[in-house]
Amino acid sequence: MALRYRVGVGSTRQRARSVQDKELRKVALLDAARELAAEQGVREVTLTAVTARVGLHPSALRRYFESREELLLELAQGGWADWRDGLLAELGAARDLEPERVAALVAETMVRLPLFCDLLTHVALSLEGAVRIERARQYKLAAGGAYDRMVVAVVTASADLDKVAAQLLLTGAMTIGAYLYQLSQPTETLRRLYEEQPRWAHTALHFREQLTTLLTTIALGARPGVRPDVGGPLPDVVAGG
User: Fold this and answer.
1) Phi-psi region of 225 (alpha: psi -120 to 50; beta: other; left: phi over 0)
2) pTM given for the model
């Protein structure tokens, strides 16, 4: 009986170590992908580069992620949590903030998350459509939950932005932010072109300023009594429809 007990404990501990080691390796892969994306951009991240950075053979990645798309989608899901936490921290216990101030805070929290801005473009283009339906559902639920929390926080902190206005502001932030971020990261060819034509670079390379201006315009125009009544429900951008 004593021997059987000791073997049982050892097996349990071994399984626990195995689970813990697997989770640590998964975190290491995510960190490697995050670093590579920061260095080269999301579009340049490859499974070979990710696994090489953590000392794994590319085939070993399948134990943790089924594909490059699933790996990057997990980073995007984490980005939603980071944006939610950042915005809620900025708004804090504030009340009666003017629309311009709310828009500036939303813009600033996006600017602080360049990887998330980059990932948002790729989520819509390829990532969420290339994974299993269960994984896509998990991403949608996490993103939608973060979005809903931010809508409530914006309404609570604002002087005159209602739920619809908050939805318009946050939808504008994620869509415009993703686009402007791509413009702000020109290729070498575009950099040379901007040197020749500085007026084109003026818009492309001022991410924070452009995003803040556009979100301020949305916030002011989305207020109840100011925004146009276009009829019908707002599109659910997070859900993709």
Assistant:
1) left
2) 0.85
